[in-house]
């Protein structure tokens, strides 16, 4: 058994703390989305595509195209066009996608300024620079991609709902969808706080994160189902807590492995993939949190509410059949017993399940004695014969 399985941490006990932290993160993030907005990139807002071609190659050696893109980006940032997208093609062409301009005069001025800067930086090795034209690009691609992503998200959520309902229970399926929404809202909120420019990669990042998160959640649910089949009389809270401890090492190890790899991409991969890498880091961390501290605890909360409602119905049934007992009613035929206190410390998650199972059996016997007591008092009140 690993380190976490040997602990006696009661994660389920602090369910409301974990849920409160999630709600707080979502509310803060959505506040920034409403009052500050997201920093949409050219893929979503549209812009202009500028094409330039040099007489000679400017990126003939491996790695030179990256340096050309870096220098061009620095130049555009100085001109106030830091949001532009840059691409080197055929070793002698540069494509620059800039935000929309207000009129043709400003567009021509911008084109001339960029041409002069490119000639100054790469004219010695590239030779004469020729402008291949300027095209206006609308946000149609971004809108189509967003629409397709939303359709894929809706279809995927429906399939997840059906699969988990068939494989586990309906409450497990609903909680899984809620966990995915939590991950998406947390990611969008942090992007609004950091004001990172969002392009088409953001849609791919969201879909990737949702796939990762649901996989982690299903692993925990599968362990809960396995433990429930072994310990049928133990309460779900104890089973879920032990299952979380048993799968904690797996959740942490897989999450950290992905985060370490993405951190290397973020710091060493260049500015073009920094936003994508950072969004995956945030999303995977949020997904690991929701899988451990939100999904299973929410299932337990739902189960406990259903059990209380079912128990209330069972307790009210004999009370409706029996009239109030008179003051001279005979006392209970069976004395109630007091449950022994559970030990303060539990050596392991598996031992926790066993102790909870014994406690559940004793609790069931206690309720059975209480029902017999009520039935006996009811018969005594009606003048019937008591049964011992």
Descriptive account of the structure:
The chain has 10 helices and 4 strands, in the order H-H-E-H-E-E-H-E-H-H-H-H-H-H. It has 388 residues and is of the alpha+beta class. Strands 2-3-1-4 form a 4-stranded antiparallel β-sheet. Strand 2 (85-89) and strand 3 form a beta hairpin. Helix 5 packs parallel to helix 7 (201-230) and helix 6 (170-194) runs antiparallel to helix 9. The longest helix is centred in the last third of the chain and has 48 residues, at 274-321. Mean pLDDT is 80; it is low at 325-347.
Q: How would you describe this structure in keywords?
A:
alpha+beta, Multidrug efflux transporter AcrB transmembrane fold, Alpha-Beta Plaits, four-stranded antiparallel β-sheet
Q: Which CATH C-level class of the largest domain is it?
A: Mainly Alpha
* Neighbour order of strands in the largest sheet: 2-3-1-4
CATH superfamily of the largest domain: Multidrug efflux transporter AcrB transmembrane domain
The percent range for strand residues is: 5-15%
Largest sheet: 4 strands, antiparallel
**Weakly predicted, low-confidence segments:** 325-347
| Secondary-structure element pattern, one letter each | HHEHEEHEHHHHHH
Q: Would you count the extended β strands for me?
A: 4
What general form does the structure show? elongated
Distance between the termini: 48 Å
Average pLDDT over all residues: 80
């Amino acid at each position: 058994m690993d380190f976490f399985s040997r602990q006696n941490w009661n994660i389920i006990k602090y369910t409301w703390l974990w849920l409160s932290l999630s709600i707080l993160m979502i509310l803060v993030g959505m506040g920034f989305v409403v009052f500050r907005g997201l920093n949409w990139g050219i893929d979503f807002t549209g812009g202009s595509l500028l094409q330039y071609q040099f007489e000679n190659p400017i990126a003939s050696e491996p790695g030179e195209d990256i340096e050309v893109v870096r220098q061009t980006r620095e130049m555009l940032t100085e001109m106030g066009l830091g949001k532009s997208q840059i691409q080197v093609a055929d070793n002698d062409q540069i494509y620059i996608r800039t935000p929309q301009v207000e009129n043709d005069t400003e567009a021509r001025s911008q084109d001339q300024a960029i041409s002069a800067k490119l000639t100054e930086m790469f004219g010695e090795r590239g030779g004469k620079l020729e402008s291949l034209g300027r095209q206006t690009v609308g946000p149609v691609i971004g809108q189509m991609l967003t629409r397709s992503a939303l359709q894929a998200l809706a279809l995927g959520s429906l399939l997840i709902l059906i699969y988990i309902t068939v494989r586990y229970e309906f409450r497990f399926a609903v909680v899984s969808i809620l966990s995915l929404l939590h991950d998406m809202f947390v990611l969008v909120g942090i992007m609004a706080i950091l004001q990172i420019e969002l392009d088409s990669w953001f849609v791919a990042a969201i879909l990737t994160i949702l796939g990762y998160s649901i996989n982690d959640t299903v692993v925990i649910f599968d362990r809960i189902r396995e433990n429930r089949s072994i310990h049928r009389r133990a309460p779900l809270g104890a089973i879920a807590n032990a299952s979380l401890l048993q799968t904690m090492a797996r959740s942490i190890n897989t999450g950290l492995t992905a985060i370490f790899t993405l951190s290397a991409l973020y710091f060493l991969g260049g500015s073009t993939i920094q936003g994508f890498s950072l969004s995956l880091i945030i999303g995977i961390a949020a997904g690991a949190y929701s899988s451990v501290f939100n999904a299973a605890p929410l299932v337990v909360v739902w189960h406990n509410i259903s059990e209380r409602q079912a128990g209330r119905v069972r307790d009210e049934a004999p009370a409706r059949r029996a009239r109030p007992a008179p003051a001279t009613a005979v006392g209970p035929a069976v004395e109630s017993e007091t449950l022994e206190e559970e030990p303060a410390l539990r050596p392991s998650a598996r031992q926790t399940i066993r102790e909870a199972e014994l406690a559940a059996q004793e609790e069931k016997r206690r309720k059975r004695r209480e029902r017999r007591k009520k039935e006996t008092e009811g018969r005594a009140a009606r003048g019937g014969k008591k049964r011992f």
